[in-house]
Specification:
Layout: E1 11-18, E2 21-26, H1 38-48, H2 50-57, E3 68-72, E4 81-86, E5 91-92, H3 96-108, E6 118-125, E7 128-137, E8 140-147, E9 152-162, E10 166-174, E11 178-183, H4 195-212, E12 226-232, E13 243-249, E14 253-254, H5 260-272, E15 281-285, E16 291-302, E17 305-314, E18 317-324
Parallel strand pairs: 2-3, 4-6, 11-12, 13-15
Antiparallel strand pairs: 1-2, 1-18, 3-4, 4-5, 6-7, 7-8, 8-17, 9-10, 10-11, 12-13, 13-14, 15-16, 16-17
């Protein structure tokens, strides 16, 4: 379906954020997205409804760093809802900050009946089923934690030639998506410096890693791509205190939250290096000051990898509700980006 065919159609959304990172929950496209499983639905939207992604993610309705969650019909047992994640470049495989928001949304809207003190919400993501748990007290929802899909270290201390920097050793971890993870200082930048410098450094690193190695997931070919890079403050143990990081993903998009799937990948890497033990709690902070808490929960079987599940906790908040439409003849309104 082309953009002009959506003229007059009203898209209903609930607007939330987790740590400042937006979550635009798209509520009424469920009947328009086909497919027998979640990856088939993602391909269907990419091939047939990508103009709608542009309408909702791009200006004038969104912006360069907008993020969305499109509700679709679940196909997995145990899933209360299913979702496709969208951004400026296309579609994510996993998004922890969105899962935190979606879990609270599911309970608040009655899609999942509230049970005190914890309500389980099964969320089918492109990477698999994620179980989230919403704190409920006197009928009100609060903090959320989720247990990740199997996470693992894909490469440790990988030498990568980074243009303008030289050879840098990089870790690659999977936490629902693949990330290249490195101390920002190794790239000659600081988390306290200009955001533009961090974005440029992370983008160059991502491309250098793609030129060096091909990532792959043992369960699904569609999951086998490097999603982005995470630059850290170099703190890799809980005893070193709260670790700050910034995630730059998709087409140089900046996550305002600590990044749920990124925190998962960082914990899998820490565990693989023997830096954290099962059940040991670690804290991660984004550039907005938002914090996620994480711990390695248990080992899990995954062909070819020593995988673990990671528990990640954070909070999401409502920003409002919106109805989006495209007026006939509005060419610019179909979506554009300025950076």
């Amino acid at each position: 379906m082309k953009t002009e065919e959506w003229e007059g159609f009203v898209v209903e959304t609930v607007e939330m954020h987790t740590g400042g990172e937006p979550v635009r929950i798209v509520c009424n496209l469920i009947d328009h997205i086909e497919g027998n499983d979640i990856l088939a639905k993602r391909r269907f939207m990419s091939e047939n409804l990508d103009d709608v992604r542009r309408l909702l993610m791009f200006e004038p309705r969104g912006h360069y760093d907008m993020y969305g969650a499109v509700l679709v019909q679940p196909s997995l047992p145990g899933a209360d809802l299913a979702v496709l994640f969208t951004h400026n470049e296309g579609y994510s495989t996993m998004c922890g900050h969105a899962v935190i928001a979606l879990a609270r949304f599911a309970v608040d809207t009655g899609r999942v009946p509230a049970v005190e003190p914890l309500t389980r919400v099964g969320i089918e993501c492109p990477c698999g089923l994620v179980e989230a748990y919403v704190e409920v007290s006197e009928g009100k929802t609060g903090a959320v934690h989720f247990d990740s899909v199997p996470a693992f270290a894909f490469a440790l201390d990988l030498p990568v030639k980074v243009p303008g920097v030289g050879e840098v050793t990089v870790d690659i971890g999977y936490g629902g998506a693949f990330y290249a993870i490195v101390d920002a200082a190794k790239l000659g930048v600081s988390l306290d410096g200009r955001l533009r410098d961090l974005v440029d450094a992370a983008s160059v690193l991502s491309q250098a890693v793609r030129d060096t190695i091909s990532v792959r997931h043992p369960a699904a070919e569609d999951l086998g791509f490097l999603y982005g890079s995470i630059l850290t403050d170099g703190r890799d143990t809980s005893s070193a205190g709260i670790s700050r990081n910034v995630c730059v993903f998709a087409d140089a998009e900046v996550d305002r939250s600590p990044t749920g799937s990124g925190v998962t990948a960082r914990m899998a890497l820490r565990h693989a290096k023997g830096l954290v033990q099962m059940g040991e709690s670690c804290e991660f902070e984004s550039l907005t000051g938002a914090r996620f808490t994480a711990s390695v929960k248990e080992p899990v079987a995954l062909p070819g990898h020593e995988a673990v599940t990671v528990r990640v906790a954070g909070r999401a908040y409502y920003s409002g509700k919106a109805s989006w439409s495209l007026e006939a003849g509005d060419v610019i309104g179909r979506g554009f980006l300025l950076r």
